[in-house]
Structure formats: structure tokens, C-alpha cells
Amino acid sequence: MIAYKKGSSALHFLDARIKLLWLAGFSLILVFIRIPEVALAAAIINLFLLQISEITPQTFWKEMKGLLLFAFIPVPLQLLATGSIYLGLLNSLILINLLASAFLFISTTRIRALIDALLWLRVPAQLTFSLALAFSFMPLLEDELHKARVAQAARGGSLTRPSSVLPMVIPVLHGIFLRARKLSISLDARGFNPEKTAP
Fold it and tell me: Do 57 and 154 have their domain in common?
């Protein structure tokens, strides 16, 4: 699951505000300057950043393979719509670059540093808290999914058939909603308000 990974690389120690501004600028360039030279240059930059981040290619592929395969959907869609495989491949490369840069940002940025960076950029406190909470729930989602897979395998269920997805999804969603409800009750009991600043 995509989440912060402890490390001592230059990317880990880089200020979260710089990384956030870089991610925003990098994404805007990719989206609005849709030429192969820019997309290829972005891919080279992402490969370089992955190398210095101390995150192994195996880890990157393990956590991103589902999203990376999804990124190739524009190829057949563009082929059907315009008959151009070139545009489909270009769109897929742009999407892969966007996903890879987001992965690097999340994997090398602590949640506390992300919150500080968002508040520095004057992002509303409620939205900042929601984003931080979403990132915090990613490892919990992975844990719930692992438990559901183990339980289904113990009952002799298949993990490869499409019909096996629903029995896994329902317990995962139940576990996440239960955790979210407990967290909500806990925050209400403590009078939590994201707008309040520490004294």
C-alpha cells in the first residue's frame, strides 16, 4: 500500500513545501505541455528521483502495478476514438509520470510535514485534516485487506475469481467504516476542531 516509508535519502529530508510545489508544477507541465519530449524527460527525472529515494524498483512495482496497468487504458480508448495509437501512448506515459511522482511524494513525506506544508500554502484546515486522515488510513486499509484475504483463503475461497472480490470488499469496508466511526466519536469526545491552533 502506498504510504510513507522511513528512509535517510535526500528526498526524505527535503522540505515538504518544496516537494509539494515541485509536484504541483511538475503535474501542470505534464498536463498542459503534452509533447513526447516533455513526457520522456519527466520519465527520466522520475527514474532518477526513484533511484535517490532509496526505494527499490521491486517495491515501486509491487505497490504501483495495479495503477500502472490502469494507466494503459488510454491506449485502446484513443485507438477507438481517433485511430491514433501515438496519442494513446503519450497519454499513458503522462499518466504514468503523474502516478510515479505522486508515489514518490507520498513515500518520502511524513504526514506531519505534509500538514505543515498545506497549512503554509493556506489550504483550509478542514481540507488539510481530511487529506492527512486519508493518508493515515492507507496502512489501515492494507491491514484490513490482508485480514480479509487470509480469512477467505482459510475458508477455501479462491482469490483469483471475480466472484471472490465481493466477499473480500464487504469486510474491508466494514472494518474501515468501524474505525472511522470510532475515530469520529473519539474526536467529538475531545472537542476536536481543526480550526483551532495550538496555544
Answer: no
